[in-house]
Amino acid sequence: MSNITCNDECVHVVFLGLPNVPGIAAEIFGELSSHSVGVSMVTQNTMRGGRSDLSFLIGKDRLDDMIALCREVSERVGGQGVSFTTEIAAITVPMESPEESAHTLSKMFKSLASVNANIEIINSTSESAIFIVSLTKAREGLEALEKAFN
Description:
The strands form 2 sheets. Strands 1-6-8-7 form a 4-stranded antiparallel β-sheet. Strands 3-4-2-5 form a 4-stranded antiparallel β-sheet, with helices on one face. Helix 1 (24-34) packs antiparallel against helix 2 and helix 3 (101-114) crosses helix 4 (135-149). The chain has helices at 24-34, 63-76, 101-114, 135-149; strands at 5-7, 10-19, 40-46, 51-59, 81-85, 88-94, 119-124, 128-134. The chain is built from 4 helices and 8 strands; from the N terminus they run ββαββαββαββα. By secondary structure, it is of the alpha+beta class. It is elongated. 36% of the residues lie in helices and 36% in strands.
């Protein structure tokens, strides 16, 4: 397998404690769109009490102008705040085939564990897996994955 990549120029943005009602994500992404912000790896987790956390990645080059905007949008939609994590990297690994996905994921998890790279977030589809790891472990994690798959 080739084409394993590592992006260390990303920020994990989390809108915390959003009301879990239709239209909130549309409001957030509409505002980001109006500022031409590219996002990736969108996830939403429903929490107890009718609240959700909504997270995604943006480029580090947009962080300074997004902090105030995201906080304002969170307040406007009734969120409980926003967090920004910059000391991360996104490692993307192409999947070999949908039929082999469990085997491939197992190999990926073992590779990252072998260098003590803790996975903070994972997003997996039939085409690729994206692992968010600490920036301090990104290079070792990338090398372990490349060794396991090449």
